[in-house]
Amino acid sequence: MIHEWSCTDLRAWFDYQSRAGPELYYIAEQSPDSVLVAFPDDPKADLRLTFEGECYKMFYDSKGFYEYFCPVAVP
Fold first, then answer.
1. No. of H helices and E strands in the chain?
2. How far apart are CA 10 and CA 8, in angstroms?
3. Gap between the Cα atoms of 59 and 75, Å rounded
4. pLDDT of the chain along its 75 residues, tens only?
5. What is the pTM of this model?
6. Domain-by-domain residue ranges, the chain?
């Protein structure tokens, strides 16, 4: 999965899909190690991102799994 962030928009898509359209977001809560990203057009899609170095993780399911995302260089 690819996440592409700007100051106001997120694009999220799988690498086998076409680039997704932008979704407007804002930071609803912030702490030294995490942020809560809220989406005005879809309140059920809110994401808690927890930072670990240059990467961040998101809670994935009720079994305690997380998805991890790290920056990569694009040629």
1. 0, 8
2. 7
3. 30
4. 899 999 999 999 998 999 999 999 999 999 999 999 999 999 889 999 999 999 999 988 778 899 999 998 776
5. 0.82
6. 2-69
Residue 57 has phi, psi (to 5 degrees) of: -125, 155
Report the distance separating Cα 64 and Cα 75, nearest Å.
34
DSSP E strands, the chain? 2-5, 9-13, 23-24, 26-31, 34-38, 47-52, 55-59, 66-69
Q: How far apart are CA 75 and CA 65, in angstroms?
A: 31
Strands lying side by side in the sheet with 9-13:
2-5, 9-13, 23-24
- Both structure tokens of 69: 């995302």
Tell me the pairing of strands 9-13 and 2-5. antiparallel
